[in-house]
Amino acid sequence: MKVVRTAEEAVADIRPGQRVFLHGGVATPRALIAGLEPHRRRLHDVELVHLHTEGVADWASWTESFRIANLFVGPNMRKLVGKPGNDYLPCFLSEIPALLRSGRRKVDVALIHVSPPDRHGHCTLGTSVDVARAAVDGADLVVAQINPQMPRTHGDGFVHSSAIDYAIEVDSPIPEHAPQDLDEDELQIGRFVAELIEDGSTLQVGIGAIPDAVLRALTHHRHLGVHTEMWSDGILELIESGAIDNSQKNVHPGKTVSGFVMGSRRLYDFIDDNPACVMLDIAYVNNPRKIAKNPKVCAINSAVEVDLTGQVCADSIGPRIISGVGGQMDFMRGASLTDGGKPIIALTSRTAKGQPRIVPTLRQGAGVVTTRAHVHWVVTEHGVAELYGATLQERADALISIAHPDDREGLLEAWHAMRG
Prior knowledge:
With 420 residues, the protein is α/β, with parallel strands linked by helices. The protein has two domains: 2-169, Glutaconate Coenzyme A-transferase (3-Layer(aba) Sandwich), CATH 3.40.1080; 184-419, Glutaconate Coenzyme A-transferase, CATH 3.40.1080.20. 24% of the residues lie in helices and 21% in strands. It has 13 helices and 26 strands. A hairpin with a 2-residue loop joins strand 25 (377-380) and strand 26 (383-386). The radius of gyration is 22 Å and the shape is globular.
């Protein structure tokens, strides 16, 4: 590893036509990305590939130099994706590492954000191991920003300093995500979902208002486990309260398993050098066969809209991509394969602007992330609809019953019109 003074020097070996992986989430290597700017004039046809990244993505406008392949569309890319040079690559999160390792999407350069080397020379990928592990393994050139504020994490994220070609040293805070304020509708959804979850269940839950509401309602549960693609402060509070002890899991019992984390500094301090928290390759974490080995897996995911047959759109508003396939299907399928598992879609019955989210049919151009055959439970603030084993008519009846009361008559009329 050669430590250089500036980010501009560190990325100087990137060549035109290469594919460059950017470490994602709160591990986004913003100093290294800024170091690309002085090289814009000499670089062209360089593809930047990444999961969601943090911060203002001014670099996404450097279209004369860079093309962008989003593996997941974060908030900073939603207005840009679909414009020339900025595209989305649909892929199950569990399959992205194989996509990178196979050479089908060969990574030439990996820009990563790591914790400082330990006495044995090992850095770690810190808060985001996910697909970064595969990118580092396959890259011909690895460039790192080394940050003492990046937690040292256990699991698959170790990167020996000898595997790093160039590095810069930074000392900057890791971006934080504060828990959201919850309204009564979200809290009610949390209570309904919590009633479906038994003691001893294994949880997959993400970040956001509804996941936070669910976790808040689990305080009095016991012997819960965590095997999830990501987690945040809501999980930490349940670990500290004793509700989560991971004691009944079959895959890594006693350990909280994930691919990445996003949350507060308190969360980052908790996972720092904590062997009870393991960050693993997302191909392993999100493998439905691995997920299904755990007891009573409850996969809790959200959606943009659900139609009356149970089809779930979770990545777009009509044709406009706003997120990605991610790991929803990985966990919905994994949960359905385990004894006592519950694949759950939880969403408010209406958007913040008052638009229905239980709809007769998905919007034109909307993508189906989770098929009607994979959905078992749908929860809104108005109740719980169990769809597994239900006919189309039974599904429609159940979903209309948990739609917003002012939408139910219109949904019923639309359903009858569709059925002839």
